[in-house]
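Sequence, structure tokens reproduced for absentees:
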Amino acid sequence: QETAVEQAIDFSLSMHDSTLAGLTAMMITETMAKRNLLLDQIQHLAAIRELRVVPSKYALAGVESFKDKGKVRNDLKPTELEARVLESGKDLVEVREDPEGRHLLAIRPTKNLSKYLGKNCVECHDAAEGAVLGVISMKISLEKIDKAVARRLNNAREHPGAHDRIEGLEHLDKVIDIDQSPIGRTPRSNP
């Protein structure tokens, strides 16, 4: 599972850069008003459970193109964790669990850099180089790998999603799935 988390971290980096590359192209071509089309397509990828692009005060104060004048801008408010990343400028990447299962939470800052993916962000944004322009926050499902490892090691009945291979199984001897859902009427009544 450690290998799977490492792969999910690499995937989250690629998706961060891909999302930012798409948004940058939209800024350059003055089509930012249609950014939801791009973000919706990315969010429909099987592994991505949630994707949020949250601008900082610098991005919101940025130049508005003539084509986008008067159109709704992204004024998404940051969660507590996203606000921390906006403030610190440091990545937050951790494995979490919620009612939908385990996932990798990756919140990465987008910085005003003179050299990023072949573009100079400083030319378009009125902020100091290195200033945080926003965050890209995503939840990447770990369900497929959890099911695949459990099936391989425990002959579990759960069927994993499509995958080519699993690396690192020689380091595991079993998978224990602990269900902590309440067995009684109160949340504290879990097994």
